[in-house]
Specification:
Layout (H helix, E strand, L loop, with lengths): L6 H27 L7 H4 L7 H12 L3 H14 L5 H22 L4 H31 L1
Helix pairs in contact: 1-3, 1-5, 4-6, 5-6
Amino acid sequence: MNQNLMYFPCLAMMILTVIVMMRMFVMRVLAVKNKDINITYFKTYNTGDAPRLMLQADRHFVNLFEAPVLFYMVCAFSVITFHVDSKMLWAAWIYVFFRCIHAFIHVTSNKITPRMLAYVGSWIALLYMGLSLGYKLLQAAVS
């Protein structure tokens, strides 16, 4: 299988991160423009009550630098070690799918149960990827 195909789920995650960043920026600008917060709020992020949608976008942007870092690591290791196969690639796309659903829910309605299910779905895909890669690397080390 072409190892370079693993780049595209990573690119999709990067695009998702940029979209959430843009949403965060728009929500911040609107909050200041609508006088929901004072621009000085952004000096320390602890003065006054910020609007819910702005906080959700802020929190999700930070979230995209937590678990997804492990996703990028597993993708990179699978490419470097030539262990990208169709199952690994599908799992990567499933991870991206669930992260997109999670992001949409988190920055809009923020309904806890569907958000949690999307988050768990992404972790199942990521765990599959990590364990599968670990098994392949262990097999290669033993043979």
